[in-house]
Amino acid sequence: MFPREVISTGQLVLRPPSSDDAESVAVACDDPVTARFLPLLASPYTLRDAHAYLASAAERWELGGAEFSIVRDGVYAGSVGLTPPDRWGVVDLGYTVAPQARGQGVGAAAARAVTDWALDHGARRVQLEAEVENLASLRVAYKAGFMQEGVRREAKALRDGRRSDLVMFSRLPGETLSPPPKPYLPFFPTGQLSDGVVRLTPMGERWAADFQKMMDQPSVRRYSLGPPLPPEEQLRRCRYTGFYWMSGQRVELAVRDAVSGEFAGHLQLMQIAPVLAQGMIGYSLMEGFQGRGFMTRAVNLLVDWAFGHTALRRIVAGTEVDNTASHRVLERAGFTRESVNKGLLPRPDGTWADDVTWVRMRPPSA
Questions:
Q1: For 357, what's the count of Cα atoms within 13 Å in the CB-facing half-sphere?
Q2: Cβ partners under 8 Å of residue 317, min gap 6
Q3: Which end of the chain, N or C, is less packed with Cβ atoms under 10 Å?
Q4: Helices 231-239 & 208-215, crossing angle to 10 degrees?
């Protein structure tokens, strides 16, 4: 059972909720973002719902858990709580941040402080789950020192009836914490890259149908590895874009016409190997945009960004030996041939093709 205490961390005070919080809780929870990611909450969320929450918060303390109001400069900024420890000393952490306090590190600071406090009071494991599309919650987990463990597929039902995947995180006693490292793959400062002709934006659900159409083109299918994915798996991939990027796994981009906004293709930076400071690019283009220099522009935008904003020093690409269109893209984008891997790539007809590896190195001055 956790002691009923007040925790102070930086500018935040974490204290047990009181009846004075009711109106602030109602306002914070009657919010579209809260409603989207907490489907079990009432929507619309009323003052009556807030009073019911305060009663359940008091009960949680009685059952051995903990529930805190996050207060900054005397103003309610959110809530953070712990379930009672189970028989193995495992507790679950949950949090919400009021709209006016988002994007200011409040959630991460509160989650870190409560987790430290729980581990100091005997918890053997503190775990949390974040929906794969909830980038704010994922950011809290990383900044609060949690280790990413895995993904629970379709573990959560949303208000619209679809299922969502959950990313599992944990912290254990004795783990050395340090200030959170800067993301290996930071987001684009303005959310996009553009040269006035081509625009690169993160892939997302809105591009799933266009992406599927592109992947079904004979010119793309010919050089794709493995069997085609069903539409539902392509949609899942698009929903993972932010998570992949934030966790440093890869960057998935929609290549778009900068004037019309039309989907022109797909570009990714993948197989990130920090110890080698190396990543790999891959790309595909809609047939209507082929032969117009779109992908060369897109590759240049992405590689220039990578060398300017990440620690990568080698960007490589692999192409089938007879994929001359892809070879031209890489040559125009400043890549040079590095090696040939004999019989590496499986073809749809059961034969194996040679793979030509290309590389572009970080300029000495970058």
A1: 13
A2: 280, 281, 282, 326, 330, 335, 357, 358, 359
A3: C
A4: 130
Q: State which H helix or E strand residue 166 sits in.
A: strand 163-171
Q: What is the DSSP letter of 347?
A: P
177-203: pLDDT as tens digits: 766 668 899 999 999 999 999 999 999
Residues 6+ apart with CB under 8 A from 270: 249, 250, 251, 279, 280, 281, 282
Q: Do the Cβ atoms of 237 and 249 come closer than 8 Å?
A: no
SS3 of 143, please?
helix
Can you read off the two tokens belonging to residue 334? 């400043």
* 3-class state of residue 154 by DSSP: strand
DSSP string, 179-214: SPPPPSSPPPTTS-EE-SSEEEEE--GGGHHHHHHH
* Residue 47 near residue 22 (C-beta atoms within 8 A): yes
- For residue 44, is the peptide bond before it cis, meaning its omega torsion is within 30 degrees of 0? yes
